[in-house]
């Protein structure tokens, strides 16, 4: 029986020669992929310390590569491309919030991305005291870095806005509620005006407006009277009494004779209220005109608003400052004059 030899064909020989090279390529590819994976893993977890305090403003609609490039230029992350890959891998590229961010401490790219997704933007706390007039509010807003006073005043006097909100006056004087607001550094004057007006609307509850209507006051008149009470009162406790005096005067057809309204109507008031001021007719001079002035003279707080709607029951028609933040209230002019002599003229 003869032995038959089987010799491998050329194709099989060629494949055998290629296998080592293919194996080597696979190993190399695995090593490269592993190296890239290790580098990305290290990138994600290696904290980067920015060079001092760095503020990064992410504009609305900014693309992921733009955001990553901003972060790299600020020294917040070490590699913009890898940061972009991280955001895509975590599927949060479309969830990054616009705004201004501040980076001070060392942070990993994962931690940086968490802040961007949660919207951990810079905040600004701005307090508007009760009794501030519109120009004072505008100055406070400008001092907080939220635009210029002129921009704020323009937004608060925009005719289209006033018509939409049903404001009969030339501005939102009195309609911007005094409170502490926490906003972002990118909050615009228009956004702040909307927020402050919305806060006032929340305070004007149905029972408050109903009580005001029962006393003959619409919304505008309520806020106007409350603003006068706010400026006249030295403390919250006296506000219902002061409101009661003004309601009595309005009912009797007497002029309100409120100094703060006169002052509001004086251009460039220098702090010294004179007899000339009291006798010069202006729309806000409640010594020469009966009834309420055309509109609010400041932003009243909630206590003043409620005092104007729910005044104290009193027979008083007059009050005078005692010099200690309180007032003396009287029902007759004779008693009032004696109180004026006692507290303001040294008993003369």
How does this model look, in words?
This protein has 348 residues and is mainly α. It has helices at 10-45, 64-73, 80-89, 109-118, 134-143, 149-155, 159-165, 189-203, 206-214, 219-232, 239-252, 259-264, 275-279, 302-309, 333-344; strands spanning 54-58, 99-103, 123-127, 180-184, 318-321, 327-330. The strands form three sheets. It has a two-stranded antiparallel ribbon with strand order 1-2. A hairpin with a 5-residue loop joins strand 5 and strand 6. The longest helix is centred in the N-terminal third of the chain and has 36 residues, at 10-45. The radius of gyration is 36 Å and the shape is elongated. The protein starts with 9 loop residues before the first helix and ends with a helix.
Brief synopsis:
With 348 residues, this protein is mainly α. Helix content is 50%, strand content 8%.
What is the H/E order? HEHHEHEHHHEHHHHHHHEEH
The number of domains: 3
Radius of gyration: 36 Å
Output the strand order for the largest sheet: 1-2
Question: How would you describe the oligomerization state of the chains in this entry?
Answer: single chain
Beta fraction: 5-15%
The chain-level structural class is mainly alpha
Biggest sheet layout: 2 strands, antiparallel
On the 0 to 100 scale, the average pLDDT is 90
Shape: elongated
Tally of strands: 6
Distance from N terminus to C terminus (CA atoms, Å) equals 153 Å
Instruction: Give the helix tally.
Output: 15
Low-confidence stretches: 1-5, 27-36
The helix content, as a percent range, equals: 40-55%
